[in-house]
Amino acid sequence: MRFAVTKVCASGAKARAGLLQIGSSGVETPALLLSTRKGLPAFMSPDLLSSLPLPDSLLLNVCPTHFIEVPPSKTISNIGGLHRMLGLPDHILVAAAGESTECLPSSDATNKFGASFETPAGRKLVKPSDYMELISCLQPNLWASLADEVPAWVNEKRNKTSVERTLRWLDACIALDAASGRNSLGVVVGGSSIEQRKLCATEVSKRNVSGFWIGGFGLGESVEERCSLLNAVTDCLPLGKPRIVSRLGLPEEVLEGVVDGCTCFTCQNHTRAYLNHLINVHEMLAQILLEIHNTHHYLRFFRSIREAIKAGEFDIFWK
């Protein structure tokens, strides 16, 4: 993996543009990391995924705990890894256990040995050794370490415990990794505590990681708290490595409906009247077509961010 920062805002904003290169696949950043369910975005088959703009849609977020029970991780390993099983050899797969709120470990059931996750077969305790066995079988391009993410309302003692566990598990994951952490993302946690988040970010930066997964957001904090926490964390992280922020909210101005002139597959091939009919009769195809449209616009949104940074006009774009 190679990452290079190509442009940094000259103003007070901390926005930066970069290039993430993994093998023959390259993605410009900032970029959208598409959330998936067992490796594919919701309502989207591989052929529909290929219809999205490239290379913007190459980044896929997979949750290792989705593969605890079915299919068995050993089966995926025998196939040749998740890329071959999904038929997506050129996509960049980023594995992280906390990629969505439903995949988060229970903060009450997590203990010093590992994180507890809900699976189709019930609650299961996942230790660093179990987690790294999953990573070894899935063979993602990048993986985030096992972490103890907590909601915003827990007390300072619990925040401190989450940082200590996350750092200990990070060390254990790197020690168990055959590549010694070369493709790892260190997770930054600490709940709503700025002090604990800064401590975690500083300590994670000292480890042999390729980038950072800034976790613990979307769990009860306000927008104002989120901005303060992000500012505190990014100040402690080195500039030359990629950063991924999980579960951020929607942009303030979301493009709604079918926009005239939209170049996505949905708008080029179907009318608004047809979409309205599908929605009214509760046809599943409506969700598929809307997912294609919304993802297409989200990818364009991130492309606009990159172009604004490169042109030195991000402050104008942001306001």
Your description of this structure?
The protein is an alpha/beta fold. The chain has a domain at 32-249: Alpha-Beta Barrel (TIM Barrel). Helix content is 37%, strand content 17%. It has eleven helices and twelve strands. It has a seven-stranded parallel beta sheet. A three-stranded antiparallel beta sheet has the order 1-2-3. It has a two-stranded antiparallel ribbon with strand order 7-8. Strand 10 (184-188), helix 6 (194-205) and strand 11 form a beta-alpha-beta unit. Helix 2 runs parallel beside helix 4. The longest helix is centred in the last third of the chain and has 27 residues, at 284-310. Residues 252-260 have low confidence and may be disordered.
